[in-house]
Design brief:
Radius of gyration: 22 Å
Structural class: alpha+beta
Distance between the termini: 82 Å
Number of strands: 12
Length: 196
């Protein structure tokens, strides 16, 4: 009987020790990761991309341009995109608010002006190919995601983005079928917006 109780006690202590070690490892990792938040990870056309940490829903305060134009929550994907268009292109979006998925307006027709963003909107699968500096918008998650197209080849599109764990650049397939352009396979954006 005593041996059984002793075994159960050792098993309980061992289990709690393992759980404690896992929790402490997670805390140490989060503290280490937090220390990197706000560090530059890449740049495009002299506009920096900053690390947001592994907690992608976390923001680190509001960011404003010198003239008061609201750029977004630090270091979310929206903040980088708006900062890119503001710094590299001199463009201020008429509607400064919204999650990434809100930047693609499904009521705006293909090739028409998205008035909230002051940009022409094109649907994935439409007759207009994406171009360098277009805004690629994903609407497939709770908040969506977006990035800036940095390169377009015959069969790929590269984007730069903020608030992703890992590398700030990703590539997606580009195919043309019957005069229509499709970006992505596993993950497909709703489309792209363009300054014209």
């Amino acid at each position: 009987m005593k041996e059984k109780q002793s075994f159960k006690r050792k098993l309980l202590i061992g289990t709690f020790t393992v759980i404690f070690m896992i929790i402490m490892s997670a805390v140490v990792y989060l503290l280490w990761d937090w220390s990197k938040v706000g560090t530059e990870t890449d740049s495009y056309q002299d506009v920096k991309v900053y690390y947001n940490g592994i907690l992608y829903t976390r923001a680190y305060g509001r960011n404003f341009a010198d003239n008061g134009y609201y750029l977004g929550q630090r270091w979310q994907c929206v903040e980088f995109v708006k900062r890119f268009y503001y710094q590299a292109k001199g463009h201020e979006m008429p509607d400064v608010y919204g999650n990434a998925k809100d930047y693609f307006d499904f009521e705006t027709q293909h090739g028409e002006l998205n008035g909230q963003r002051g940009m022409i909107q094109y649907y994935n699968g439409g007759d207009v190919a994406p171009q360098k500096d277009d805004l690629l918008v994903f609407t497939d998650t709770k908040y969506g995601h977006m990035g800036i197209i940095t390169e377009v080849t015959e069969n790929e599109v590269e984007i730069i983005q903020q608030n992703v764990y890992g590398e700030p650049r990703s590539t997606y397939s580009l195919t043309m079928q019957d005069g229509r352009f499709y970006v992505g396979t596993d993950r497909e954006p709703a489309g792209w917006l363009r300054l014209e």
